[in-house]
Amino acid sequence: MRIRVVSSREEIFTLNPNERIVHMAFRPSNKDIFGLIETCPKIELIQLPKSYIRTVSKSIEIFLQMQRVQLLEGDVWGHRKDIDEYYNIPFSVIEKIKEMKTEGKSTEEIEKTVSRKNKLNSEMVAYILGKENFS
């Protein structure tokens, strides 16, 4: 699973329209969020650092709900944008989630364990659980 890291407002309008998960590494304004939705109509999730998510207006939160776009708090630990514009969630993490699900672990237990061991926000683990086909 790949997360597109956006580190400046100028970058928003150069994104691939098929991006589904975006991490904004800057404090976005309402205009930036509207621009992102316009540029990437298939977007499903926007991730913001903890300090930035608190500054998102209520109107933008409602707008994102109407567009069926999740807004998550989280970070991309140790990512270097100069090396790759995408942060890749390791395949081993996805496999661990599948393994725990197969073992019959509860969603809460999976979120807690995986987020603690892999520096992933529990909301992101919940998103992965919802997106991946874990039969």
Q: Could you please describe the fold and organization of this structure?
A:
This protein has 135 residues and is of the alpha/beta class. 45% of the residues lie in helices and 15% in strands. The protein contains seven helices and five strands. It has helices spanning 9-12, 30-39, 50-53, 58-66, 91-102, 107-118, 122-131; strands at residues 2-6, 21-24, 45-48, 70-73, 86-88. The chain has a five-stranded mixed sheet with strand order 4-3-2-1-5. Strand 1, helix 1 and strand 2 (21-24) form a beta-alpha-beta unit. Helix 5 (91-102) packs antiparallel against helix 6 (107-118) and helix 6 (107-118) packs across helix 7 (122-131). The protein starts with a strand and ends with a helix. The relative contact order is 0.15.
How far apart the termini lie comes to 18 Å
**Overall domain count:** 2
Q: Give the % helix.
A: 40-55%
In what range is the share of β-strand residues? 5-15%
Please tell me the overall pLDDT.
87
Strand segment tally: 5
> What structural class results from the helix and strand content?
alpha/beta
Q: What's the order of the H and E elements?
A: EHEHEHHEEHHH
The main sheet comes to: 5 strands, mixed
- Count the DSSP helices: 7
Question: Radius of gyration, rounded?
Answer: 15 Å
Going across the biggest sheet, name each strand in turn: 4-3-2-1-5
Shape category = globular
Spans where pLDDT lies below 50 across 5 or more residues: none
